[in-house]
Amino acid sequence: KIAFQSDRFGSSDLFLMDAKGGKPQRLTVHSAADRITDITADGSVLFNTRRMYAQVEREQEIHQVSIAGGTPTRYMDALGFDATLSPDGSKVAFVRGTCRIEREAYRGPANRDLWIYDLNADTYTALTTFEGNEFSPDWVDDNQLIFISPKSGKYNLHSITLDGTEVQITNESAFGINAFSLSSSAQTIIYQSGDKITKLNLSDNTTNDLN
Q1: Buried b / exposed e across 2-37, counting CB within 10 Å, b at 16+?
Q2: pTM
Q3: DSSP string over 53-116
Q4: Which of 157, 106, 163 is nearest to 130 (CA)?
Q5: Beta carbons within 8 Å of 127's beta carbon, 6+ residues apart
Q6: Whole-angstrom Cα distance, residue 11 to residue 31?
Q7: How far is it, in rounded angstroms, from Cα 155 to Cα 111?
Q8: Which of 85, 137, 158, 162 has the fewest C-beta atoms under 10 angstroms from its C-beta?
Q9: Hey, which residues does 36 pair with through a beta bridge?
Q10: Tens digit of pLDDT for each residue in 23-64?
Q11: C-alpha distances in angstroms, 109 versus 77, 97, 129, 133?
Q12: Residues 47, 79: Cα–Cα separation, whole Å
């Protein structure tokens, strides 16, 4: 199955379809735009939306809907972006802050930071505190995340453990990294910087240009 978002009916809604093709199943129906952030092992799609608090808050809400269909529900109390569940299902990494990510050089109080929500303890912990925008967390394992940070002056990939140990992974200097995808084995990253698509092998830090 492939979950995706589409504005074919006006606003952006979530859909599910067979990987071999076929008619998509519509998962959400709302005038607010929905954006997928994760699909959990138990079959829930996590997504960002602004369907409840758009009048009073700038940050988006984090909701979930089953891939089997049904009524979407709010996933957690905190507002934020990019929610993704850890492999063991005990923690959620997400992003708080309202600054547009296009502002790579921004440093200030509206910046985006990574946070961790512990589902068992019902606690929230700030994982990063840099004054620039840090976003797009993805779990390597239950204790480590990869994310985008502008600490080097351009958006680059960093890794961080839950105890705060951080390492810069890439060194793009001409253009920052806009997006990346981590393989299911957590050994390979595909990322986009400027007009370049690059494959990074994490085991030996070798890279290959794909275009």
Answers
A1: ebebeeeeeebbbbbeeeeeeebeebbeeebbbebb
A2: 0.92
A3: STTT-SSPEEEEEETT----EE--SS--EEEEE-TTSSEEEEEE--S-TT-TT--STT--EEEE
A4: 106
A5: 93, 113, 114, 115, 116, 145, 160, 162, 164
A6: 6
A7: 14
A8: 162
A9: 47
A10: 999 999 999 999 999 999 889 999 999 988 776 777 899 999
A11: 22, 8, 10, 10
A12: 12
Q: Report how far residue 36's alpha carbon sits from residue 115's, in angstroms, rounded to the nearest whole number.
A: 18
Hey, how many other C-beta atoms are within 10 angstroms of the C-beta on 55? 6
Question: Which helix (DSSP H) or strand (DSSP E) does residue 156 occupy?
Answer: strand 156-161
The pair of three-digit structure tokens given for residue 94, joined into one six-digit string = 């997400």
Q: What percent of the chain has pLDDT over 90?
A: 89
Sequential DSSP letters for 103-130: -TT--STT--EEEEEETTTTEEEE----
Assigned token pair, 178? 């806009």
Considering only CA atoms, which of 159, 154, 146 is closest in space to residue 172? 154
